[in-house]
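Long-time lurker. I teach an intro course on protein structure, and each term I like to show students one example going from raw sequence to a predicted 3D structure in token notation. This year I'd like something fresh instead of my usual example. Would anyone be willing to generate the tokens for the chain below so I can use it in lecture? Attribution to the forum is fine with me.
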Amino acid sequence: MLSWRPILGWSQRCSYLWDFGIAERHDKGFAQSVRWDLPLLEGYPSCFIPNRSPDPGTHHFGGLDNPKLVSVLLAWRPDAVLLFGYPFRSHLRLLLDPRLRRIPIVLRGDSHNLAGEYSWSTGFVAMLRRMLFRRFTAALAVGQAKRGLPPRRRHPGGSDRAGPPRRGQSAFSGRCPCR
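-- Reply from a regular --
Happy to contribute to a lecture. Here you go:
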């Protein structure tokens, strides 16, 4: 969440696409069960949109499969959407739905495109990614590495902006629930 929203008088709503961390779930990367010990749902309106994936998670394309996401957004009628990541079924459904074309979408995501030169297959994927990225109004660069990417590997139009982490570092004060 962005700390300047209350200053501007904006209302916000957070739609979660699965309950990882809120309910105890097995994290494949850490090979253990994880549940947050911080009250991450307090202080703002939020909702959980049903995820019909048989294997929910962000470790694969089909892990976020929320068919009702677009209808929830259409009913709420937001002025803008902040989208965390893009390579998931639900996110592509949102990005490609023509009913949402007039709503600005801002990408907040880590760059996993830091490898060296392209082969024909990575070049093809990069071309598809550039086409998809045209749908984003802007992108929040989370780390130094993303801001340092050559222009051909950044958001089209040079609209990468420095962005805050998902939650301020002070919230964790040395505690990491994943360790």
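Some talking points for your students: The CA atoms of residues 31 and 178 lie 10 Å apart. Residues 149-153, 164-179 have pLDDT under 50 and may be disordered.
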